[in-house]
Amino acid sequence: MSALLEVRNLQVRVEEREILHGLSLTVNKGEVHAIMGPNGSGKSTLSHVIAGKPGYEVTGGEILFKGEDLLEMSPDERAAKGVFLAFQYPVEIPGVATMTFLRTALNAQRKARGESEYSTPDFLKKVRAVAASLNIPQEMLRRGVNVGFSGGEKKRNEVLQMALFEPSLCILDEMDSGLDIDALRIAADGVNALRSSERAMVVITHYQRLLNYIVPDFVHVMSKGRVVKSGGKELALELEESGYAQFEDQAA
Amino acid sequence: MPAELETVERVRRIDVDQYRYGFETIIESDKAPKGLSEDIVRFISDKKDEPEWMLEWRLEAYRRWLTMQEPTWARVDYPKIDYQDVYYYSAPKQKKALASLDEVDPEILKTYEKLGIPLREQEVLAGVVRDEGETDGEAPRRVAVDAVFDSVSVATTFQAELKKAGVIFMPISHALREHPDLVKKYLGTVVPTSDNFFATLNSAVFSDGSFVYVPPGVRCPMELSTYFRINERNTGQFERTLIIADKGSYVSYLEGCTAPQRDENQLHAAVVELIALDDAEIKYSTVQNWYPGNSEGKGGVYNFVTKRGDCRGKNSKISWTQVETGSAITWKYPSCILRGDNSRGEFYSIAISNGYQQVDSGTKMIHLGKNTTSRIISKGIAAGKSQNTYRGLVSAHRKATGARNFTACDSLLIGDKCGAHTVPYVEAKNSSALFEHEATTSKISEDVLFYCVQRGLTQEEAVGLVVNGFVRDVLQQLPMEFAVEAQKLISISLEGSVG
What we know:
The complex is a heterodimer. By secondary structure, chain A is an alpha/beta fold. Chain A has a single domain (5-251), classed as P-loop containing nucleotide triphosphate hydrolases (Rossmann fold, 3-Layer(aba) Sandwich). Chain A is 39% helix and 28% strand. Chain A has 10 helices and 12 strands. Chain A is globular, with a radius of gyration of 18 Å. Chain B is α/β, with parallel strands linked by helices. Chain B has one domain. In chain B, 23% of the residues lie in helices and 33% in strands. In chain B, the strands form 3 sheets. In chain B, strands 5, 6, 8, 10, 11, 13, 15, 16, 18, 20 and 22 form an 11-stranded mixed beta sheet that branches. Mean pLDDT of chain B is 81; it is low at 1-17, 95-101 and 118-141.
């Protein structure tokens, strides 16, 4: 069985400065990988490059997704193929109702895959069911996308989209930032409900705390643009005790 | 790498060539010789069978125009216009009055078909009378249409039904013959013949346009609409619209415009006058989609328009809503004179510029009466290498106690080769006036676009979605059918601005 996501020797530059210096990572279906590391280690860069954010130059290596060359695809093609990035800071889109946004995006993905678009009643039924499970009130769906949402609401909105679009790869970028413990628990419960043998997750985080709620199968430590250590979930606890400093030298 | 979607790079390759209404209709037409003179003014007046006073009115305007200078204060730049190189009158040749669909020039019919005016409406447009009983039980919402093709009105629909309600809706050339007293009483009372260079030119040579009179206490039973089309080469369109809402009446009027795609520039200088008497309300909506020129900035319509409403009576209300997506040059300031006590003026605008388009548009709210209120919501969107200026005046007269205005001007920039400018003028001559002004300028954010494309939208869909969100509060002011149309038009206008 070929891997769902295969990152091989990835080198990435931003404005002449190399951020990733040959990063490799293999993620199979059903697995949850945590990527940990200090600020500036390149965690977010990795998530952005996988999703196709403009501004990054890949100078070496490759990314295969379901055996296909991901770097040849536009970001919307990647989304339709099943790549989902839950943003650290979800943006606000004034004047565009969340419901409208969800329907437009879902139907765009379905259209790109050659599937029929959802009818309005079918779509509403689906959204309502998912929203209820995440404790998202209908009123929130009528508001502009993320406009006036609290930090917790924004993250729940990300999880809502994850549930709705049913991606095969979910990348969660610093999901815990700006959340209090209760908000974190709700969001993490939503994510855990989406764990399945058909879906993989890459959880990017600075702190071990999040991994108490979303328990990973594998933990990778990043430093200075490389994965410097990989292990099981116990690696996260080890890091919590000893900090990242021990890896700084290895990466140099 | 392919994942790189550099918006700016794409903006450089901007293409506004997707104009969908750029075809030409080949028909025989009656034209006056090129150029402008007293003889041409007489020719137009004669063609229209106008009363003597009207000819004098035109000639006076013409003589005045000769002494005037073209205004240069707007932030628009275009080569000098040779006013002698323009045809001032062009009409499709038509042998007799139309009795059935078969007698209409098939080329004109095809034009309306291509413009997407539905077949049923197209039939009535072309002047075929239908039986009253033929309408469906559900009574679909109807719109009476006056179609102006170059210099003449080719058809006005639903005249009989409107007549029953006492509403007069006809080409202004017909109104001059059938209701001369009404026209004479109101024409030029809001925009005098001496008002400005373009309005004065229009007064001399206007060929057609719509006339509306809604009698006291009548709520006009349907939306009224005029559809303007410039077809002939080198032909100026100078339409004149006059709408009078008598005491306690209400009317909603829509205006749409397109023109063929041509390399040379076409001149359009219209005048619209609205008069609202006591307790009357006029809602005037425009979707302007004249040909904007090609990707190199060649061709396109010069749109120099004077639109003004007079809230002449107490408690009257005039509301302008405009969606401006077309024209190479737009010079347009739909305004309200708030003369009657407690009268209200509104201006809702979406102005989109792309390619090399230049827009200088806004409004004037002139508060003269007591406790008059006005509201201005302007949304400017600039893409490509275009320049988009909001220019507005809010003024309160000494006696306009309790005048209130709220203005919000928001500009959105797409790419870094375009410009958005806001030029508000505020004059309060009494201390009780309360004016509020808010303005924002923002760039369409790469982060927002990336968020949308990560969720599966293409770059263009993402821009369309964000822009439609940006203009939402103005779109809501449009009648339903128009709002849907306008929303599509906004997306089309911005095609090629990114992605």
